[in-house]
């Protein structure tokens, strides 16, 4: 992708970002541990593997990461695997910027649907995605966690 096409402040992640992405996910998701009584999946993800195989983007703030986005391309949709925004950067439109970029990437790939999933107990996330136009499609039990699936048709 041409750098002129990239949203302001957004860079494609490189392997050097993997550790910082893990630290960012820990900061962004730690407050959910007592809510869901478990460690959220993005806190344990293998970001180096995601960077090697998926469409991964970061927003930088000085020398640190303000936010990250992991997208997985499927034949019929684009999956948002994770969005992480540093707690100090929340409320500044970082998450919305990443969602807008996910919409653009879906269009670049010729896809008309974006999907994601989150824990049912992460009510703030669910409400935020709904305000952004996502609709809940179904729930499923994954081990001891209840997951809600969401979809945005472009």
Automatic annotation (TrEMBL):
Pfam families: Acetyltransf_1. Residues 8-154 form the N-acetyltransferase domain. This is N-acetyltransferase domain-containing protein. PANTHER family: AMINOALKYLPHOSPHONATE N-ACETYLTRANSFERASE-RELATED-RELATED. PROSITE patterns: GNAT. The keyword Acyltransferase applies. Keywords: Acyltransferase, Transferase.
